[in-house]
């Protein structure tokens, strides 16, 4: 069996280690995903600016409406009043139309950016090597793919438009404030630097805490994903309480971090509210004194108050946008950590073509280790095309590791693995792996139909080809026995099928792919005798005319192999066909006789 890393490590930083500093290039990188939607964004931005500009007009008209009402007390001529009201209604209507256009256009941009970012991130994850996934939790990766990407949606769409609109409001309202009353404007504007400074100070802390919230949520998701995917083991060991406690700790940590963020956001909101409305109270007090002294009309005072409210609202809005930017930058840091990951299986600069392999495989002084301890050392042998080679040895001998080097799931640390006389590192990974089929011990089926799972080997296959592959894999009869036939949904990981049925679906999938090199990794070890016989018959069909590497748990299944490589401690200690190795004596005969006695005992128990 392959030596695997012990327990997957979280992608989130160790709390004891310093966090990476925010990269100022994150924002341009995020905005690059909005480039395909720049026309929609520009139209949405224009609609935002027009709507904001219209909103600057109505306070002036509102003030005139009040003055017209006061100055014409007792008059029956309502013409001026009617015209002002109609103008106000027209402005409100136009503002609503452009506001609705802005909302739709920017929502379209945001949804497109999130979809593109998720596609890019998922596509990049699929290019990373098995070593990366061995070191990182699936739940944490999916959290970044979903929650973190969703967090950055606002910054790539509405946040920038809001920034433009709020800037227009602040500049326009401030100018009109000064034109309405320069004296009151000084009192109002004096508070703005204090508001901005408070927002920046608290906003920085919100960004840091937001990153912590995202990390804690990802860790909780990782625990939940592990427990759900392994629910049979959890229930089999009655470890539900253990998993509840583990997940509960993660949820509690994310809850405490969220509370910390909520306190900071509440502090910012409360401070902004007090500074904004406190300054308005002072303005109303000072303006009221000017109205009483005749220096200001009631309409101008109302106009000034509305503009002051717009300035205060815009400043408060800027603090909210700033907070959004901080949260999004925290999430984007986690996203770009993944996008910046590079596979440790580099593609060749000038790949050698491999359209149709012969199937010759050679190991030349191959050495490999997952860490400092070598797993394979000095491995050399040649396998002609079409030969069936069995890999035998005690657990931990390196059998699966050896097989995983052929499709280049891992790179050798010394020597070379060759296919058709050339180093596998000289081929493109997709070309190399297109020539290799794999039937593992633990078959993974996807949660679609049986037909979709078989067609996974070759998506463009016809229905007739799918059924032919199923018949060759001894799977057609049980498939047709289901009410849904080939359209039967297998459930997550094929949970609705038995182990033997799953294996035969996997064999049909490999048959449909029609690989030149085949790797069978203990494909029958977990099956009962009846299922094993059916699967073994399907495997014999699958192996015909292909270079095959068989890793067998039951030695009786590999007696007919052309050649048997006996491995121990990462080395080939015996090499030859079954009869020769049995005659020669040694590790193989010891393993075979031990296994034979076990099988005899199993049969006796059944009888």
TrEMBL record:
Ranges annotated as spanning the membrane: 39-58, 84-107, 159-178, 184-202, 266-285, 305-325
Annotated ABC transmembrane type-1 domain residues: 42-327
Keywords from the UniProt entry: ATP-binding, Membrane, Nucleotide-binding, Transmembrane, Transmembrane helix, Transport
GO biological-process terms attached to the record: oligopeptide export from mitochondrion
Pfam families the UniProt entry points to: ABC_membrane, ABC_tran
Key word Transmembrane present: yes
Domain of life: Bacteria
ABC transporter domain residues: 361-594
SMART domains reported for this sequence: AAA
Example of a GO MF term: ABC-type oligopeptide transporter activity
Region (Disordered): 1-25
Localization per record: Cell membrane
UniProt main location, coarse: membrane
GO cellular component: plasma membrane
PANTHER family referenced in this protein's UniProt entry, alphabetically: ATP-BINDING CASSETTE SUB-FAMILY B MEMBER 10, MITOCHONDRIAL, ATP-DEPENDENT PERMEASE MDL1, MITOCHONDRIAL
Protein name per Swiss-Prot or TrEMBL: ATP-binding cassette, subfamily B, MsbA
